[in-house]
Specification:
Blueprint lengths: L1 E5 L9 E5 L3 H13 L3 E7 H17 L3 E7 L8 H13 L7 E6 L1 H13 L5 E6 L2 H7 L4 E6 L2 E8 L4 E4 L9 H18 L1 H10 L8 H21 L14 H10 L6 H18 L5 H14 L11 H9 L10 E7 L2 E7 L2 H8 L11
Parallel strand pairs: 2-9, 3-4, 3-5, 5-6, 6-9
Antiparallel strand pairs: 1-2, 7-8, 10-11
Helix pairs in contact: 1-2, 3-4, 5-6, 5-8, 6-7, 6-8, 6-10, 6-11, 9-10, 9-12, 10-11, 10-13
Length: 370
């Protein structure tokens, strides 16, 4: 087992361990039952994961003697809203949630964000555990304590920082992940490498054709390296006041694209298009060497990720979502742009006209990417 410690001990200890091991999922019911002792567990999952893993986990938790409740939401981004969160909060309150209870988030990024938000807000905060079942959630959203829900005005506009008490990652569950969802997660791996670690990015370039769901040893190493990078950033900048903003590469544009398609565009797809567009913007502004931008674009395309805007994007919704981006301030929307592979410039002002021209938003075609 690979263990990565996230050390957050001021002003109070919120440190936790991330465990990464193939086959870990089968051991978790016994581990969780022992951790909970007499505390009640509330397992939150979605309909797809419930069928694949959730119901079996529930049975094993009961067999292990846990006091457990099982809550299922519809699969997909449209469940990540205040109405579904309120319904879950009500079910926890009716189910006897106490301050010593533990919420277990079993699923992808939507379930993790939603369950984490519920855990952060019910009774002003209870413990929660992340068990991510998608690559995107394993390398990104399960680590760092950013939880929340979407609003009609944009993605992740309502939320909190609420650190999990543990994260358990089993790369074997990726075997049941649809290919498109696997590529979706690889977008976040590329983002972490492009933003933070030039050598890791080169490793991805060399092995891009080998990054498949069945290469468990390679994926385990890939996940561990990505998680280790993110954990180090979270330790240094838990509340995203500086260094952690570097992990928003591609996200300002990506979130606005997701919202403008009513989330039919997957998060990783939006981030990939956002990274491609922001790389072109950075080249135009003289911030990023063109060779580095082309390396990024080639890697995204080799994975099978989109790098241009789909026709279904609604320009007016895109513009309003961009204006309401949570990273904006009184000076307007700023961007995290690559200076080179592995290094970022944070808080770069970019004219809206350049963004629109780069993306081709409002034209009949998607924007150019090279």
């Amino acid at each position: 087992m690979t263990q990565i410690r996230v050390q957050l001990d001021t002003p109070r200890d919120r440190s936790y361990t991330i465990d990464i091991r193939p086959g870990l999922l089968t051991a978790l019911p016994g581990m969780l039952a022992r951790q909970a002792r007499r505390a009640r567990l509330f397992v939150i999952t979605d309909a797809t994961v419930a069928r694949l893993y959730g119901r079996a986990m529930f049975r094993e938790l009961v067999r292990a003697g846990a006091d457990v409740r099982f809550l299922v939401v519809p699969a997909g981004e449209r469940s990540k809203n205040v109405a579904v969160a309120h319904g879950l909060q009500s079910r926890l309150l009716r189910g006897g949630v106490r301050r010593d209870s533990i919420v277990v988030a079993l699923g992808g990024g939507v379930v993790g964000d939603l369950a984490g938000y519920v855990a952060a807000t019910v009774l002003r905060g209870v413990r929660y555990v992340q068990i991510p079942t998608t690559l995107l959630a394993q390398v990104d959203s399960s680590v760092g304590g950013k939880v929340g829900v979407d609003h009609s005005a944009g993605k992740n506009l309502i939320g909190a920082f609420h650190q999990p008490t543990a994260v358990y990652i089993d790369p074997l569950v990726l075997r049941t992940l649809p290919r498109a969802e696997f590529r979706n997660g690889l977008a976040e791996v590329v983002k972490i490498a492009a933003a933070l670690d030039r050598e890791f990015f080169a490793f991805i370039e060399r092995n891009v054709r080998k990054l498949v769901r069945t290469r468990v040893r390679l994926l385990t190493d890939l996940i561990a390296h990505a998680v280790g990078l993110k954990a180090a950033v979270v330790e240094e900048d838990e509340f995203e006041s500086g260094l952690r903003k570097s992990l928003n590469v591609g996200h300002t544009i990506g979130h606005a694209l997701e919202a403008s398609t009513r989330y039919s565009l997957k998060h990783g797809e939006g981030v990939a298009i956002g990274m491609a567009a922001e790389a072109r913007v950075a080249v135009a502004l003289g911030v990023l060497p063109k060779d580095d931008a082309n390396r990024l674009l080639r890697t995204l395309r080799a994975i099978g990720l989109p790098t241009s805007v789909p026709r279904r994007v609604k320009p007016a919704v895109f513009a309003s979502s961009l204006a309401l981006d949570k990273k904006s301030d009184a000076g307007g929307t700023t961007y995290v742009l690559l200076r080179s592979i592995g290094r970022c410039a944070i808080g770069v002002p970019v004219p809206d006209a350049l963004i629109r021209r780069t993306l081709g938003i409002g034209s009949r075609r998607g924007g150019r990417t090279e």
